[in-house]
Amino acid sequence: MSEEDYEEDGEMNGKKFLYVNRRGPYGTVYALESLEVVLIGAAFEQDVSLAFMDDGVYQLKKGQNTDGMGMKNFSPTYRALEMYDVEKLFVSKESMDERGLTTEDLIVDVEVIDNAAMADLMEDAEVVLSF
Amino acid sequence: MPIEVNGKSIETDEEGYLADLNQWEPEVATVMAAIDDAELTETHWEVINFLREYYEEYQIAPAVRVLTKAIGKKLGKDKGNSKYLYELFPYGPAKQACKYAGLPKPTGCV
Fold first, then answer.
1. Cα(A123)–Cα(A109) distance, integer angstroms
2. C or N terminus of chain A, fewer CB within 10 Å?
3. What is the mean predicted confidence (pLDDT) over A92-96?
4. What CA–CA distance (Å, rounded) separates A126 from A20?
5. Residues of B in contact with A83 (CB under 8 A)
6. Taking all residues of chain B, what is their mean pLDDT, rounded to a whole number?
7. CB–CB of B10/B18 below 8 Å?
8. pTM as predicted
9. pLDDT tens for each residue of A2-19
10. CATH number, domain with residue A111
């Protein structure tokens, strides 16, 4: 067996998946569940994009501290996405502006797009999963 | 079922992963390996220590594909392949090595 056995799985190739994240990281389990689905799905060699809008942009906020909250701070895991070949992360410009956030505040490199471009992204995706 | 490490009883889940990740110490890996009839060598420890660093940084136990790639980058191509890793950890490099390292079961492993 070689590494290629894991790398080449032609069957699932090509499908465009978009995961849309709209909720804050804690308080509900949506953000963590979404991240786990992305990581599991990454094994299937799909074309994966992640979108963050509304309070979902907080998922990528630097300096999260969950002490006393009873939930693990899973934000460092977003930095592992690149190693799972998940490299297309989009955030809504409007959602960032409304919350006074800039890309400097985020733990990973993202592409900031306006809501019109976000709509195109959703239009373009073959599978949209909303969390 | 709990395992005995240095006279202490440490809780594990039904698959043998640590219930509380903070209870890990190197001896835990040795005891877990003994349960699997395995003995840990320097090369096993390389992978176990790598996994602990990886978890510390990313808060996640990597999938086997990612582990293989990352090991290749860190320890060289001759080690970053599944043949090498499966020889060290025949029950599956991600699952077995993560268990010894005190990490949770890798996300996506069933």
1. 23
2. N
3. 98
4. 13
5. 62, 66, 69-70
6. 92
7. yes
8. 0.85
9. 444 444 444 556 789 999
10. 3.40.1260.10
The architecture that CATH gives domain B3-100 is Orthogonal Bundle (1.10)
The mean pLDDT of A44-68, rounded to a whole number, is 94
Domain ranges for chain B, please list them: 3-100
Q: Helices (DSSP H) in B1-110: which residue ranges?
A: 26-35, 42-58, 64-75, 82-88, 93-100
Q: Say yes or no for a CB contact (<8 Å) between B57 and A76.
A: yes
Contact between residue A41 and residue A81 where contact means Cβ atoms under 8 Å apart: no
Q: A27 in the Ramachandran plot: left (φ > 0), alpha (ψ -120 to 50) or beta?
A: left
Q: In 3-state terms, what secondary structure has residue A129? A: strand
Domain-embedded: residue A75: yes
Give the pLDDT of residue A46.
Answer: 84
Q: Do B107 and A83 touch (CB under 8 A)?
A: no
In terms of DSSP bridges, do strands B8-10 and A127-130 run parallel, antiparallel, or are they unpaired? unpaired
